[in-house]
Write a structure and sequence with these properties.
Layout: H1 15-33, H2 41-58, H3 65-72, H4 81-95, H5 105-115, E1 132-135, E2 138-142, H6 149-162, H7 167-181, H8 188-203, H9 213-218, H10 220-233, H11 237-252, H12 265-273, H13 280-287, H14 292-305, E3 309-311, E4 324-326
Antiparallel strand pairs: 1-2, 3-4
Helix pairs in contact: 1-11, 2-3, 2-4, 4-5, 6-7, 7-8, 7-11, 10-11, 12-14
Length: about 325
């Protein structure tokens, strides 16, 4: 296939995309050159667990980070057997991330075989039937016929290896096109996220320990909306912008020297948005969050327990007048 006749996914490079690529590139450059921000083994492990839990949770898996940690440590967990199997498979797949090439069809099929082992009959093979792409409980679009999948995936992988676009853009484009093709009977969402992580890792090794998936989970409705808009527009720019925003937020958690790296990415994001005293609703709105339980468990409570923020009315924790402020340390 000549370069003129080669497949080119439809997308537009917007000013917002250019700005995000520049910002992420600068931040990752600072992380790479500052020894104190190097990802230690403990932080890699923590973020890998968050990555796995977040990616599975998007697909309806109910395991908590603590349960995923226990499974990783070989401990018994009281949970549905299928969810435990999903976690074990994801752990095995992410452990092999450094072995794979994002351009290899063989590696792609191998990864799917590991990720979906014991869960579906067609693990490690392209689908043989038709499927619809679901999101937020509705059909986003009907995927191309199964007989076209091998050709479409070959074209996409060939584009990925030959494109001159920045890996931040190329990875997001691949992720969207992968979801549009929906090459497997199941596991497409988690495979698309795994493969974008692999593309980012090949660009900068720090991404093996940066959890973008946990942020996607927290903005799950926006994730599906970006897919829908891209499909409606026949242009994946909305999805590219969304993914770059998630990557930017994830990278910023490692590019904030005033906060200890032991603090979770969610708490770091919380501290970054504080402007004086703020209510819970103001904080959630600023962070773009809608799930009150997730905000309380992943952001507010850890920050309070670590003494990084405090209540303005500590004797009345449930008061409607309650506000929060950061603590000088």
């Amino acid at each position: 296939m000549s370069k003129k006749d080669a497949y080119h996914p439809p997308f537009t490079i917007t000013p917002s995309i250019l700005r995000l690529v520049a910002d992420i590139s600068e931040a990752t450059g600072r992380i790479s050159t500052r020894a104190e921000n190097a990802l230690d083994l403990r932080l890699r492990r923590i973020n890998r667990i968050r990555t796995i839990q977040g990616s599975l949770a998007i697909e309806g898996n109910t395991l908590s980070e603590e349960q995923v940690t226990a499974i990783l440590d070989g401990k018994r967990v009281a949970a549905p057997l299928r969810e435990i199997q999903e976690a074990k498979n994801a752990i095995a797949a992410y452990d092999r991330l450094e072995e794979w090439s994002p351009h290899s069809k063989y590696d792609l099929l191998t990864a799917h075989g590991i990720l979906m082992a014991g869960l579906i009959d067609e693990a490690g093979h392209y689908r043989s039937g038709g499927v619809g792409v679901m999101g937020g409980g509705q059909v986003l679009h009907m995927a191309p016929p199964a007989k076209r999948v091998p050709m479409l995936m070959n074209d996409l992988l060939h584009w990925l290896v030959s494109t001159d676009y920045h890996p931040l853009v190329a990875g997001s484009v691949f992720h969207y096109e992968f979801e549009f093709i929906h090459p497997f009977s199941d596991g497409n969402g988690r495979m698309g996220r795994l493969w974008q992580t692999l593309i980012l890792y090949r660009w900068n090794a720090h991404f093996s320990g940066i959890s973008v998936e946990s942020l996607i989970y927290e903005h799950q409705s926006d994730y599906y909306e970006a897919i829908r808009k891209s499909t409606d527009n026949t242009d994946s720019s909305p999805f590219i912008e969304f993914m770059l925003q998630m990557i930017q937020n994830a990278v910023r958690t490692l590019d904030t020297p005033q906060v200890s790296p032991q603090v979770t990415p969610q708490v770091k994001r919380l501290l970054e948005v504080f402007r004086g005293e703020m209510t819970r609703d103001e904080l959630m709105t600023t962070l773009g969050l809608k799930d009150r339980k997730s905000f309380r468990e992943r952001y507010l409570r850890p920050a309070l327990e670590n003494g990084l923020i405090e209540m303005t009315l500590p004797d009345r924790p449930n008061s409607r007048l309650q506000r929060y402020r950061t603590v000088d340390r």
